[in-house]
Amino acid sequence: MFFHIEKGAEQPAIYKQIYTHLRDLILDDQLSKKKLPSKRKLAQDLEVSLNSVAHAYEQLLAEGYIYSAERKGYFVEDITRYIKRDEEDVPFPEELKEERMNDRFQPEATFSHIATDAEHFPFKKWRKYQQKVMEHHRTQLALLPHPQGPYELRESIATMIALTRGVRTRPEQIVIGSGTQPLIHKLMSLQAKDTQVAVENPGYQRFYHLLKNMGFPVSPVGLDHQGISIQEIRESDPQWVFVTPSHQFPTGTIMPINRRIELLNWAAESPGRYIVEDDYDSEFKYGTDHIPSLQSLDQNQQVIYTGTFSKTLLPSLRISYMVLPPNLLKSYRNAFGDWIDGPSGLNLWTLKYFIDEGEYGRHVKRMNAYYKAKRATLIRELRQTFQDRITIHNIPAGLHFLVDMDTSLSYSEIEERAKDNKIILYTIRRFFLQDYEMTEKGKKKLVIGFANMEDDKVRESVRRLASLFS
Amino acid sequence: MFFHIEKGAEQPAIYKQIYTHLRDLILDDQLSKKKLPSKRKLAQDLEVSLNSVAHAYEQLLAEGYIYSAERKGYFVEDITRYIKRDEEDVPFPEELKEERMNDRFQPEATFSHIATDAEHFPFKKWRKYQQKVMEHHRTQLALLPHPQGPYELRESIATMIALTRGVRTRPEQIVIGSGTQPLIHKLMSLQAKDTQVAVENPGYQRFYHLLKNMGFPVSPVGLDHQGISIQEIRESDPQWVFVTPSHQFPTGTIMPINRRIELLNWAAESPGRYIVEDDYDSEFKYGTDHIPSLQSLDQNQQVIYTGTFSKTLLPSLRISYMVLPPNLLKSYRNAFGDWIDGPSGLNLWTLKYFIDEGEYGRHVKRMNAYYKAKRATLIRELRQTFQDRITIHNIPAGLHFLVDMDTSLSYSEIEERAKDNKIILYTIRRFFLQDYEMTEKGKKKLVIGFANMEDDKVRESVRRLASLFS
């Protein structure tokens, strides 16, 4: 054996050195004898303990480098040599490299419609209910969560959305997931690939891209002042329509009852038609009550309702749900009944108590008041700053609104300037899907989100926004 | 107006009653006049406050039941009538109904290989690091998590699996998800639908069903005492092979180095071949060190490594990850770069500190010692109880082992008896994929999981197991 053991505290453990040396010799086919020395012999030669050699041999044995023959000793396996295709190591591609968070973009101002307010999240209450789960639900925590989420949480959600959104559902019909995107992905993966799909234009680009990527023929359908155009739906003749009737994304339109009935009646004409109602931020209404969901008006079980806790709690929590009509639930269970993903049981059980104990309702109510005030300040500041250069689509709902800005800048120029000035700002361009003729003339539409804006930075944010257009 | 307002604390709010009455009259087309009375007039007629009427009108206006014309008053919209296809409501299908958890199956004994031990989970430490996240990472919590998981956690995982599993990866290559199932689903959705896939047989049935459901041609490939058969792989000629080399699921075989190299060399013959190494429970080794992963031996970037925190922490936590070679990472990012799902940011950031502060390593070490002792007790009890009727495949790794039971019962009979006696027990039948000729002669193979068995119930569990075979 031609190797030397380094002793000392800073050296690898002796057994590890023996293991490594022997392994490398075996892999390089440098052991002339197939039989290894006995443990005792090697221990003497290397001047180490028998124990160290025994440990090294055990590891080599476990990994299959050597084998033992009873009363004969240890023998080296006949090890195949590695094939390496390329002579040189391929370096990691530059374009796939990332930066650490700390080195990343820190905005000077944010008008994001995605991020919310974490400062007002009741972390203490959350921890309190989580503590309860940790104490009383260890059995559940040690198991896989139910593929649709715990039944008990689905009961709480069913009761809650019945009260606030008129949604008629049994707990069985609710599927909880890590986002509406993966839920819709699973649901749609069960539909024939030639299923015609219609989405709002402008609209939620993530659903659009998802459906396109899944291979469906997707028609972007235009909007009027009441929401999605029924006439255009009839022209593109889809089987599935994706809508945001409570607060159209991104225009903010609240679909009136008449358009809702027309849309439901369109679906009622054929049992193979479905409407996906994405109720992403309906919890926030400033001035009126909650408006009943499309699902609550549906007479024929053709509406799939989706809701999320991303807006009311935290986007990083990743808890959303969909409510399936019974026939879709059946095929969903057949396909995904043994599917294990979705949010952590710890968070789901915590959410159950959070809802049941009234904390969720109180939080939403508090946030409504808080966002209402911040929104009012923001609108006032925008009006004062931009005067008649701005038109605010002041629909009192949700966590964002549209404005028309009188500017000679193009959409690209606005977006570039925002980027250069470290301002997170989305124009409506992001939400126009294919085929849309976007005029560069006249006023430019901006999406103004206010949830993630710190309340003492409203004035400053508007000032920074103004600097883009000066 | 032909309706009456009920006053009293137990009645709905007055504005709500006015709203509901008017809405129902409008929907039933029972308002003879299209013009509503003025707010003042209606308030007088109903003997309620002007405010209540105003509130009701606002809500009807917001929902689109009425419209207002300046200086003329409020008018009823022309509302389309609902189409209802079926005369009668369809009852919810019996077969889709569920029971509440409390009414569900409570096992008398469990040999589940899925559930783990939640009693020894360091909830206090978890809360401590979570508290840190709640205090110092509010910015991150208010945002969507990175589609691959926070870079900082990926750094921690990269370092950890480099040390324990020899995995060579940059943080960029790690994709964190809610389970290996959804991760593999996304990865495979990018491969051509005629991609030949091979899986171990017996093997992890969830991957098998997933791949079959996705439409891939899947070949179950047999095992010998070293793991998956290279000869059978060559015969079925797949492009992708799914294996569990650290601790074959469910047989427990640890793939020796020679077979590993043969498998890697098979892949190296063509750049379009990939090996998915599911390293689902490699953290648990009783007696030997961790065995280096297949990925660590790969010379050609053709191994996809998947790991999970389901076994070491809690299955209900739903945190797993995969390590992608750069070329697969590229196509993954193109397809899923704007995909939002995966675990909650709160849990991911907590996990980062849990790992970085050494708590994860200490927990795994403690659980190794704990499981080792429980496993030894269980094996002793099994031997004492079943004597020479049982052969234990005593491979000192993981959270389950196989036993051969000498019994005249068939697999179906064993499973039925277990069910009747409220014992969670899986036989190997569950993990045999299609085309497998399972002999009902000779000994029956049982999968004995011990992680979820309470340590003071080992003897009783074995006694209950014995009662099945008496």
UniProtKB/TrEMBL annotation, chains A, B:
PANTHER family: HTH-TYPE TRANSCRIPTIONAL REGULATORY PROTEIN GABR
Source species, domain of life: Bacteria
Cofactor annotation: pyridoxal 5'-phosphate
UniProt keyword Translocase present: no
Record flagged with keyword Hydrolase: no
Keyword field: Aminotransferase, DNA-binding, Pyridoxal phosphate, Transcription, Transcription regulation, Transferase
Protein name in the entry: GabR family transcription regulator
